[in-house]
Amino acid sequence: MNYLKKVLLYVFCSWYRKNNRIIIHKQNGQVIESFGFWGLTVVFKGKNSRVEIYEPIKFLRRFLCNRSKIRIVGNDNHIVIKSTKHKISNLKIVGVSNNNNIEIDENFYQSGLCVVDFCNLDNMKFKIGKDCMFGQNVEFMLGDWHSLFDEKGNCTNFSKCGIEVGDHVWIARNVVIMKDVLIPNGSVVGLGSVVTKRFDDENILVAGIPAKVLKHNIKWSHKNPK
Q: Quick one: 222 exposed, middle or buried, by C-beta within 10 A (0-12, 13-18, 19+)?
């Protein structure tokens, strides 16, 4: 057996012994298992985790530093990335955690670095809705890396649920989304904002540090203004 066959056999055995899966949903309805997906790096360090990718979808890999990457250190995590007509570049999903669920719905678009960080937390949910558009350098932090306590020793900054971005949401560049945030359908997050709480009204413009509502009943389009 030559060297390449030994390497492939090692990869096959190590992945399948730990029951980690990369599942590709083809356009014709066929579902196949794969060792990877072109333009996307997937690293498993744990067991029973699953990444599902729905075609058509394309991950750009013009430069190694811009390559999209999923790095899962933990067990029983589930990531779903659905089909999009837009090309994905420099999407990073990282976590040292267990039993988390991540879903990126159809027609997701981002123009630069987008980071989803689970901050060492378990049992979290993260969802991006349909037809969302992100600028460069958008970061989602599902928790805080360090604890804060009150005078009685009670932790005051634990995460409760996760982060949800509704359908048709535009997030401008250099935005940070913190734990337990909901951004409702049809909304816009302004340039350089830090979002620290959930908002319930749809079609709003939020901006600032921390972000607050600036306008209600807005609509937005992918097209340039004329």
A: exposed
**CA gap 77, 101 in Å, rounded:** 6
- CA angle, 53 then 55 then 57, to 5°: 90
Q: Count CA within 13 A, CB hemisphere, residue 111.
A: 10
Domain residue spans of the chain: 3-145+156-215
Among 107, 104, 101, which Cα is nearest to 87's? 107
With tokens 């203004």, the residue in question is 225
Q: For the segment 172-183, what is each residue's pLDDT rounded down to a tens digit?
A: 999 999 989 999
**pLDDT tens digit string along 5-39?**
555 555 555 555 588 999 999 999 899 988 888 88
In angstroms, the CA 181 to CA 73 distance is: 24
Signed CA dihedral, 71, 155, 123, 131: sign only: negative
- The C-alpha atoms of residue 40 and residue 58 are separated, in whole angstroms, by 9
3-state SS, residue 5: helix
Fold of 3-145+156-215: UDP N-Acetylglucosamine Acyltransferase; domain 1 (2.160.10)
| The two structure tokens encoding residue 55 | 């075609």
